[in-house]
Amino acid sequence: MANDKRDPYAVDEKALSDLDKRIRSARKSTKDPRKQPDDDAGARRSSDMSLAFRMSSDLVAGVLVGAFIGWGLDWMFGTSPFGLIVFLGLGTVAGVRNLLRTVSRMSDEDGKDKDGQ
Known about the structure:
single chain; mainly alpha; elongated
């Protein structure tokens, strides 16, 4: 190799042209990973996650508030466990009602988006 007089930095135009043709054909045949099919997919996924977190929080909050109110009334009036049972049920119903209201609102908005209104 010490006797090799070729310039290691010489450019072979034919090899570069062939490489360019192969790169162009590969780009045409495959999707470009830099082009996303939907640019706001990440924002939509984040919005969906926040909505799911809100819905689960509504349900848990309804159950917990009902349980604490029932426990407090039982403690004040000495009617244990009747107040806890009644208000736990009412809190659960309130949480489920909030979930249904949110889902209904979502489906109304989705229908408006599809109709273009």
